[in-house]
Each structure stands twice: as structure tokens, then as C-alpha cells.
């Protein structure tokens, strides 16, 4: 073991979900080491502790894992549980942290960002509850990166992570586990595999696009091997260091191959995709795309049909920019409903305190208290379970849902890689306008409230400010603007749009048309196109 002298490196501030940078930034001398040591220092040291380590298999995953193991050993950790090949999906890592009652875990991933030597890498720390470090801890980690003077690392050859079993590094025990086994077992406790298997045996066809990222092995084992879907139902099922050039972000833009299949002549009954680290999901039926906000609402309304949720839900939570479709379900079912800032770390307290069972975000994230991360494969299985019980198609489920609860038209417009100064100025100017907005009528709609969202955590009382600017109209339509906290170049501005439709005659509109008025109002107030010089968003979901 030796102690290496280092100096603080600028910019190691964790964002919405961990520290994400260009891979080459992470590969600079001391960069990864400084951050990992800062994590250990911020949790009272690693001595005697047990951690889970794994990642989504992107470029540098294997090297980073070896560094983390050597640093854990040098810092006195007792035991590390690591996925074979240093692979673990984010939800599987969360499960292993909980299952083995460990002190937390280090997850190597930049999630939905592209991978490769010239693309993105990331790392985040999850605590003993299996969830992403809360803001208090990420603030401490960042503060530590600004004063770090040394880190500890062991001199050793690489540990062979290709074989399942026990090994050691000095006094530290290392257990290499199959990344899928424990996770698949957990899924069997939550869902009626028999019913799904019967539906598939009856001819129900599935296409799961793993986008050459981490969910491939999970989906092949669960959907093909255990549920009996035809071989080849899982496509792009081998995790590759550069995701085969795919951008593993499961939305209609980046999962266009899946969209083409689902909108084509021989579409299967059900389509789904997941992201780089396996915590996101997109659900599609033949010629129908389920908006993630609607998906959360459908799951909330139907979860009791799956065996792990027969007792009903304690409550539901959604991130602020996510549509209020889930709120409408909660209201009808008499369930508590919570609104949190963007990022899964805010759901942890609510789940730990047993206030909510299901959580979701508009960004293709849904999950439950079975782990403390959003979970792509879980969402797919929940959908399959609901379809198997209700014996309806995806489009029938959606239509039935809107008939019952009304339809919250929803869309997100992303303006990517805009100049940071332009983005910041836009937000600052908009913030300054907020006090004058209520009462004004814009494009025929009157503004009811306008604010910069502040979250008060009901469990620990912590306060998170500046979590997104929201302008709400008196007919419940609204738009939200915030800057992304996961990008690695320039700024990404997200415009979230929503309007409520209660007239069944209007449930089949194209969301962009239904939202045209609110899109126009947002432009009039915030001037995104005018100020960025862009014609329109780069990605529309
Ligand atoms: C985005 C999403 C957010 C999600 C986060 C991490 O954050 O909007 O809802 O929790 O990514 O997801 P931002 O700050 O870029 O809007 V993942 O699958 O990238 O860990
Ligand atoms: Co992800």
C-alpha cells in the first residue's frame, strides 16, 4: 500500500446522477483516484467496510474497476462484491447493496450518454440503502475534491474478474458474482412469471432493444430463458465498450430502430428499450408510443395486479417536470402523491420512510421500492405482467387509462450543446421575469403561478433550491425549463410541456399539436429559439 500525493482537480462536482465527464478526462492521471478517495473520505473512511462495485461495461469500466479495488484495499475495506467482468446494471448494483447489507457501492456509468474513448464515462456512490448519495453527501464529496492532498492505493496486479468466486487483495476479500442471478431472483418474487410465460406461449411477441448496453444479459436470461420469448426477442444484447456506436438512450430518437419495427408491418405486440446502465425504459406497442409520464400513471393504476404489489401502494412520487398523470391516479385511488426535484436521489428518503412504493420520471425512469434506483427491466416486466392479467393490448390499456383519468398531453424538447453562457443568461433572465408573470394572458391562456421550484424534503427537512422554473396556467397547462445536470459538453436546456385534456373526443391527438399553444407561450416568454438561434429542439420525446 502506498500514499500518493495529489492536488485538487477542478470540476469534480457530481451532477444529477454522479460525476460524468469525457472518458479522456477520467483517464487523466489522478482524476479517478482523487474522486474515489474523496468518496471514501466523505463517508468516514472505507476501513472495515463492504462495498459493491460494477458498471455498465463502457470503455474504461474494466480499468476503473481495478483502480477502485486497489484503492478500497488500501483504504482498509473488508470486502468488495463485484459483478463478473466488472459488470452490473445500476438497479442490480442497488439490489446487491441492499441484499448483502453493505456500506454502499460504486457504480461506473454515464448512463444514457454514449460510451467510448471519445465519449463519456462516469462514477457515482450509492449508500447503504442502495440509493444514489443524497445532496448533502454529494456536496461533501465535492468539497473534499477541492482540498484533497493524497490518496491511498495498493500496488498489485489486476484481479481476475472473469471468474465467479472468492479472491482477495491483501486483507480485502473480493467476491465476484454473476451480475444477473440475484437480480433475476428478485424479479421472480415481484412478478407472475407463470402468467407472462403463458401469454408468450400463446403467441405474444416481444422485442427488447438492449442497445448494446448492460441490459442485454439481464433481458436474455429473464425474457428469453425464463419467460420463453423466442430467441432473438432481445436485440443488441451484448454489452460493448462503445455500445456499438449506438446512443443508448431509450427514446424515439435514439431507439429509432425499435420504433421502425414497432411502426412497421410485422410489429410484435410489445417493444421496449433500456439505456446504458439499465435503469431507464421505453415502452412501445404496435403504432403506439407510451409517454414515460403516462407509463408511471398506468403502473400506479395497475401495480396491484402483480404479485409483489397485491397489497396496494403506500404512495406515488414523481419528479416535478413529470406530468401530473400519476397524480390523477393517486387522487382517484386515495394515495399520497409526492413531487420531487429531478434525479432519483430525491426518492430515496420517501421510499425508506415507507411513504411511497412507486416512483417515476418523465425521462424514461420508473421504479419501485424493491431497489433504490429506477429500473428498466423491472418496468418492462411490470408492463408484461399487467398485459398478461388484463389481456389487453398496449393501445387498449392506454385508451382505457385516458377514458378513466383524462389525458395529460406531454412532451419534452431538448436543446443540446448550446453555449453555456447563452443557457445561463436565458435562465437568469427568465427567473427575473417570474414575479410579473402571474395574471398575464399569453396566447389565450392566463398564467396562474410562476416560480423557481424549491423542494422541502418531508423526511429529513433538507431544502433544495433552483430545481427548475415552472410557469403554470389556470387551465393546469404548464411548462418547465431547467438545465441538464448530466451532460458533458456545453449546456442542454430542457423544456417540459404539459396540458390536461378531459374531453374523450380529443384523446387521440398528436401531442405536438395538442401542445402547440403551450409551446408558443413558452417561446414567447422564454425565447429559447430566438436566443439560441436554433430552429427547434434536437430531441423531442
Ligand atoms: C437526466 C434526467 C433525469 C434523470 C437523470 C439520470 O437528468 O432528466 O430525470 O434522473 O438524467 O438518469 P438531467 O439533469 O440531464 O435532466 V440516468 O439513466 O442518465 O442515470
Ligand atoms: Co441510466
UniProtKB/TrEMBL annotation:
Its cofactor is Mg(2+). Its EC number is 5.4.2.2. The keyword Secreted does not apply. This is phosphoglucomutase (alpha-D-glucose-1,6-bisphosphate-dependent). Keywords: Isomerase, Magnesium, Metal-binding, Phosphoprotein. GO terms for biological process: carbohydrate metabolic process. Residues 12-151, 183-284, 293-405 form the Alpha-D-phosphohexomutase alpha/beta/alpha domain. The lineage of its organism: Bacteria, Pseudomonadati, Pseudomonadota, Alphaproteobacteria, Rhodobacterales. Gene3D superfamilies: Alpha-D-Glucose-1,6-Bisphosphate, subunit A, domain 3 (3.40.120.10), Alpha-D-phosphohexomutase, C-terminal domain (3.30.310.50). InterPro entries: A-D-PHexomutase_a/b/a-I, A-D-PHexomutase_a/b/a-I/II/III, A-D-PHexomutase_a/b/a-II, A-D-PHexomutase_a/b/a-III, A-D-PHexomutase_C_sf, A-D-PHexomutase_CS, Alpha-D-phosphohexomutase_SF, PGM. GO terms for molecular function: magnesium ion binding; phosphoglucomutase activity. GO terms for cellular component: cytosol. Belongs to the phosphohexose mutase family. Residues 1-20 are annotated as: Disordered. Pfam families: PGM1_C_vert_fung (PF24947), PGM_PMM_I (PF02878), PGM_PMM_II (PF02879), PGM_PMM_III (PF02880).
